[in-house]
Amino acid sequence: MLLDLIAARRVVFVGGKGGTGKTSIAAALALGRAGAGARVLLVSTDPAHNLGHLWDRPVGDAPVRLAAPGAPRGRAGAAGYVDGLEIDPEHTVEQHLSAVAATMRRLLPERMHAPAARHLELARQAPGTHESAVLERIAEAVELGAEAYDLVVFDTAPSGHTLRLLTLPEQLTSWTETLLANRDRSERFGAAVRGLGGGAETDRDAELRRMLVRRRNRFSRLREAVTDREQTGFVVVLTAEPLPVAETVEVYGKLTGLGVDVAALVANRRSPADAGELLARRRRQEDGHLVRLRRQIPDVPLLDVPLLPGDLVGAEALARLAGRLGASSPGDSG
Ligand SMILES: Nc1ncnc2c1ncn2[C@@H]1O[C@H](COP(=O)(O)OP(=O)(O)O)[C@@H](O)[C@H]1O
Ligand SMILES: [Mg+2]
């Protein structure tokens, strides 16, 4: 069952097409693991946040306690809990840019302040700024998870966006690499132009260089963590319909290509076979789609989660959903 499949992981990404149930499944997984005694950090990276709505309490840019199911029976001392956090990209970009601006003002001579400020203003609008800010926060959450939690569950944005993020560490690393190379050139250039080249200039260069190296190291650590198949797994949520199935196959191919382990596929909101003819017919149609999915992805566990009655809001409803992260699909071989 899904909870067992991820029990040994430290980082789980929950992804898939929009509206299939990523946020609900991510929250239920977090709650399920917390119920087994794990300290869980649940992180939303979807700009359309809804952790707060789902847990019926305000969730923001810093972790807040969402649930503390307590110690499981027979395991005294291990009291699990779920903390939640919604990454706010705008806020992150602002914070990041103002930190960089402060460093630039400190490090650059006065006459460079205006061009530097213009440069930063452009950077705010540049493609990739947003993503790299989110990625930096994802890296931070993985680091925080390694220190203070047993598991980090990411409720991600719809598939395409997340895949772009997961490929970014490499792009950003080489981008940092390029900057470092430019820096190397300009250090020599600067030293030549300055002639006497005061000691202070050299210190500034060294500090800029350290900043870039820190960033590079952080992204390469993230890349290592994400592709560590023992520690990190991706759960793809879908509904048993043509488009989500097609997207799942595509996402699976891309993740596998990136070296990311797909731990499980979750067919969510499965129609019941025994609740009238309409739903029974839907059920048969869904079975057909899942059999096709199975043919294309034969060896990843495929799990069913039934369509539940009522609104999925609040810890009690989520606990009910967590209790259903068990049954395996008829299309599933293992
Ligand atoms: N197993 C389920 N049974 C019934 N409703 C569900 C189930 N899973 C999700 N939902 C509902 O489906 C809608 C979309 O779920 P959500 O988790 O927000 O999807 P996503 O995060 O992928 O956009 C929500 O209204 C949610 O309550
Ligand atoms: Mg969502």
From TrEMBL:
Signal peptide: none
Pfam families noted in UniProt: ArsA_ATPase
Superkingdom as given in the UniProt entry: Bacteria
Domain ArsA/GET3 Anion-transporting ATPase-like: 10-325
Record family assignment: Belongs to the arsA ATPase family.
Protein known as: TRC40/GET3/ArsA family transport-energizing ATPase
The species this protein was found in: Streptomyces synnematoformans
